[in-house]
Structure formats: C-alpha cells, structure tokens
C-alpha cells in the first residue's frame, strides 16, 4: 500500500505512541528516522513533511543528543518518544547530558557573522522545519519537537 496514493490506514481517533532507545552512536540515526517516517506514512502525512521536515529535524536532534549531549560516551543511551496522530507529530529526544540554553545556542547561520561557523545549523533547521521546539530537563536533556500536519 503506497502511503501517498492510498487513504490513511488509521481512523481519526487513533494515535501511535512509541519509545525507541538506542546506543549513543550516529549509525542508528537513519533507522530511527525510517521508523518515525513509516508511522507518519500510516497516517498519510504529506510527502514534504515525511521526506524533509521530519527526517532533517529528527536527524539533527539525534546527532546533537549523541555528539553534544552524550559527548559520544560509550555506554550512553538516547531515547526517542514518538506520539503521532492524523493532526500532529510530537517527538522527544532524550540524552544523558546536562542540557543547554536553547536561546543562547540558537543562531541564524545565514547572518554574515555566522556564515563560516560550523555549529548552530542543526537547531536553526529544527526551528525552521518544525512548528514548535522546546527544551527541558527530565533526568537528562530533552528536546521536544511538534509538527502539525499540513495538507
């Protein structure tokens, strides 16, 4: 069943909630993104959101959790919580880091003073591709991203 040409498999009242835990290793990012995109396809999310918004924002959040939050520590874990309905997707990425100041780390890489910088692009992309980004601490660092379906 092709998600783009067929009606949604699930009725309006259904939601899917998943928890995925991975080692703090960038090799797992692609598979986690595939799992989340597959769930959104079940609800027939628009192709742009499935192929651009979700993969890019989630990949950036996961790489930040692994590389910055967990500092690539062997034995560290990253959790991803997914809640998807026909109307919206909520993703939470939890790492074992101490956290960060979201506003302080958010820079516009298109500004002249930031063009040569190698950092700051991930958070910027996440804010551009998702409808809402929140950061909080809960026995580790948590980034919550919300995407509202737009048909």
Summarize the structure.
The protein has 4 helices and 5 strands. By secondary structure, the protein is an alpha+beta fold. It has one domain: Histidine kinase-like ATPase, C-terminal domain (Heat Shock Protein 90, 2-Layer Sandwich).
How would you characterize this protein structure?
With 151 residues, this protein is α+β, with helices and mostly antiparallel strands. The protein contains four helices and five strands. A hairpin with a 3-residue loop joins strand 2 and strand 3 (88-95). Mean pLDDT is 84; it is low at 1-6.
Q: Figure out the total of helices.
A: 4
* Overall tally of structural domains: 1
**Which descriptor suits the 3D outline?**
globular
- The average pLDDT score comes to 84
Rg, alpha carbons: 16 Å
Within the largest sheet, what's the order of strands?
1-2-3-5-4
Distance between the termini: 20 Å
What fraction strand?
25-35%
* Total strand segments: 5
What percent of the residues sit in helical stretches (DSSP H or I)? 25-40%
CATH structural fold name: Heat Shock Protein 90
Helix/strand order = EHHEEHHEE
**CATH architect. name:** 2-Layer Sandwich
Structural class designation: alpha+beta
What is the CATH homology-level superfamily? Answer: Histidine kinase-like ATPase, C-terminal domain
Taking pLDDT < 50 over at least 5 consecutive residues as the criterion, the unreliable ranges are 1-6
What characterizes the major β-sheet?
5 strands, antiparallel
Q: Which CATH top level class fits? A: Alpha Beta
């Amino acid at each position: 069943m092709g998600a783009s040409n067929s009606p949604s498999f699930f009725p309006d009242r259904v939601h899917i909630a998943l928890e995925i835990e991975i080692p703090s290793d960038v090799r797992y990012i692609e598979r986690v993104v595939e799992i989340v995109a597959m769930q959104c396809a079940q609800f027939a999310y628009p192709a742009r959101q499935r192929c651009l918004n979700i993969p890019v924002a989630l990949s950036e959040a996961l790489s930040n959790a692994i590389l910055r939050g967990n500092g690539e520590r062997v034995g560290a874990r990253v959790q991803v919580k997914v809640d998807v309905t026909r109307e919206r997707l909520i993703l939470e990425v939890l790492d074992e880091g101490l956290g960060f100041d979201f506003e302080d780390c958010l820079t516009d890489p298109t500004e002249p003073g930031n063009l040569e910088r190698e950092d700051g692009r991930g958070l910027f992309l996440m804010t551009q591709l998702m409808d809402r980004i929140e950061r909080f601490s809960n026995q580790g660092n948590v980034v919550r991203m919300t995407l509202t379906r737009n048909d």
